[in-house]
From TrEMBL, chain A:
GO terms for molecular function: glutathione transferase activity. The gene is Gsta1_0. Residues 85-208 form the GST C-terminal domain. It is an enzyme of class 2 (transferase). It comes from the Eukaryota. Keywords: Transferase. This is glutathione transferase. The keyword S-adenosyl-L-methionine does not apply.
UniProtKB/TrEMBL annotation, chain B:
Belongs to the GST superfamily. Alpha family. It comes from Copsychus sechellarum. Keywords: Transferase. The gene is Gsta3_0. Residues 3-83 form the GST N-terminal domain. Gene3D superfamilies: 1.20.1050.10, Glutaredoxin (3.40.30.10). This is glutathione transferase.
Length: 221, 229
């Protein structure tokens, strides 16, 4: 296995995108092996690479890691993105779990059939605007530092930026009532590793179009 | 705030049960405040104690922690149930992720219609015996040790035992093809802190019943139909 982590997933955001963001923020180069058709997934399952028969899977440091949280915990800890002590980690974990919940809503929207999309969209935007973003707006306001926790970049900042940008794609005017999130977005986006990841040609994935959704359905369902 | 952790949830398993298990396994005494009325829940919301307006919430070490995984990670790390290094932690996280997914199928079970319950029961058993149990059976067989990770009792062992017992409640002989898991179950159950938690009178909660479902629906105003995956 090469020195670089190797990501196994389809060529789209899904559950792998937060992992791509985290690696990019940590300045870690990675390779990707895209699952294009069902046979690609079956092959991985049959050769014992996927502990629970599922992707994401990341080959890293001699391990074949599965389970999004396990992968992200490992990367965050290895590259010092989870705070300086247990209490900072607790805060970061709380924020990150809330962001996972919101990300789940945003992510599943893409693969819903058209007749379910409308209701889901309303629920998703409601949660974003009334449950999640107000929390982070307040944290930034009260904490009054550049980052969500302590005084350094953590995985919580990276994940929050990711989710802000995703929500932005759906409803940009949402952020007019969140001035602290707006300046947070500008500030974190300007950090060199993040800035690079936001440029065209990076490994960041675009929103899934019909073609990608179609492919995903064929591979997994 | 008292010195003991204080758990805010319904008087039933739900998402809080794994937290009860882990605290018990760590030998940590805890208090509980049960949500019975909508009023109580609204007071809690207004007090700003629930970061994302949700329970579980645990008052611990001066914090009001929410989000089940965050709470569990904190307890595991604090009480040395999270492995000795990053690699052991990765293994524990993977194993816990699997049992979490499995128990997730059971979480919604009480809220399903009678017809959907039968389908879901079959689904749970199928996933347990074809996707999850074989993994842990193999892990134990390959290293031949008493515990899942690093020859030491960890969060992964507690979580797996909890999952095994929950699936057995859906099908009592579900472990029949898994000799390693049978021995594991006996072994972990006999650890003093676990044994105590398994005895009647402990804070372990029983299988959710209609009263529990009705309480949750009433407190959360969750009156919509819950559908299977």
């Amino acid at each position: 296995m090469s020195g670089k982590p190797k990501l196994h997933y389809f060529n789209g955001r899904g559950r792998m995108e937060p992992i791509r963001w985290l690696l990019a923020a940590a300045g870690v180069e990675f390779d990707e092996c895209f699952i294009e058709k069902k046979e690609d997934l079956t092959k991985l399952q049959n050769d014992g690479s996927l502990l629970f028969q599922q992707v994401p899977m990341v080959e890293i440091d001699g391990m074949k890691l599965v389970q999004t949280r396990a992968i992200m915990n490992y990367i965050a800890a290895k590259y010092n993105l989870c705070g300086k002590d247990l209490k900072e980690r607790a805060l970061i974990d709380m924020y990150v779990e809330g962001l996972f919940d919101l990300n789940e809503l945003l992510m599943t929207y893409e693969i819903l059939p058209a007749d379910k999309k409308v209701q889901h969209f309303a629920n998703m935007m409601d949660k974003a605007e009334n449950r999640y973003f107000p929390v982070f707006e307040k944290v930034l306001k009260d904490h009054a530092k550049d980052f969500l926790v302590g005084n350094q970049l953590s995985r919580a900042d990276v994940q929050l930026l990711e989710v802000i940008l995703m929500a932005d794609e759906y409803k940009p005017d949402m952020f007019s009532k969140f001035p602290f999130l707006q300046s947070f977005k500008a500030r974190i986006s300007a950090m060199p590793n993040i800035k690079k990841f936001l440029q065209p040609g990076s490994q960041r994935k675009p929103p899934s179009d019909d073609e990608v959704v179609d492919k995903v359905m064929k591979i997994f369902y | 705030m008292s010195a003991k952790p204080k758990l805010y949830y319904f008087d039933g398993r739900g998402k809080m049960e794994s937290i009860r298990w882990l605290l018990a396994a760590a030998g940590v005494e805890f208090e509980e405040e049960f949500l019975e009325t909508r009023d109580q829940y609204e007071k809690l919301l207004q007090s700003g104690s629930l970061l994302f307006q949700q329970v579980p919430m645990v008052e611990i070490d001066g914090m009001r922690m929410v989000q089940t995984r965050a709470i569990l990670s904190y307890i595991a790390a604090k009480y040395n149930l999270y492995g000795k290094d990053l690699k052991e932690r990765a293994l524990i996280d993977m194993y816990v992720g699997g049992t979490d997914d499995l128990m997730g199928f059971i979480l919604m079970f009480p809220f399903l219609s009678a017809e959907d319950k039968e389908k879901q029961r079959a689904f749970i058993v199928q996933k347990a015996t074809s996707r999850y149990f074989p993994v842990y059976e193999k892990v134990l067989k390959d290293h031949g040790q008493d515990f899942l990770v690093g020859n030491n009792f960890s969060w992964a062992d507690v979580h797996l035992l909890e999952a095994i017992l929950m699936v057995e409640e859906k099908k009592s002989d579900v472990l029949s093809g898994f000799p390693q898991l049978q021995a594991f179950k006996a072994r972990i159950s006999s650890i003093p802190a676990i044994k105590k938690f398994l005895e009647s009178g402990s804070q372990r909660k029983p299988v959710p019943d209609d009263k529990y479902v009705e309480t949750v629906r009433r407190v959360l105003r969750m009156y919509y139909d819950v559908k299977v995956n």
